[in-house]
Amino acid sequence: MRSRVCPTPWYALRMTTQIAVRLPDDMVEQLDQLVEAGHASRSEAVRRAIELYLYRLACERDARRYEELPLTDAELSLADDPRAWAATPAW
User: CA-CA distance, 51 to 45, in Å (whole number)?
Assistant: First the structure.
């Protein structure tokens, strides 16, 4: 098997894969409206929508985990006492 070496190292940092997706006409119209409203392209709007969807799935997964393993009383006490967070750096 021959090893593939990327001729331009910067490309590896920004690699993408092109996929084809079939969308209903009404969804394409909504997508085009997003582009007109400020997204750079259809591709960028679809990429952002997928990012948000994946983030939502991750949040739902985390919520299920917290249901399965609730916070301890010690962890909950940190949330109830503002002084417990005094050393936390501001965002």
Answer: 10
What totals of helices (H) and strands (E) does the chain contain, helices first? 4, 0
Residue ranges in the chain whose pLDDT is less than 50: none
Report the pLDDT value the prediction gives residue 54, as an integer from 0 to 100: 96
Per-residue pLDDT tens over the stretch 53-73: 999 999 999 999 988 988 888
Q: List the one residue out of 17, 25, 13, 14 whose CA is nearest residue 50.
A: 17
d(CA 54, CA 48): 10
Rounded Cα distance, 91 and 89, in Å? 6
Q: 43-65 b/e with 16+ CB inside 10 Å = b? A: eebbeeeeeeeeeeeeeeeeeee
Question: Which residue in this structure is represented by tokens 């910067």?
Answer: 10
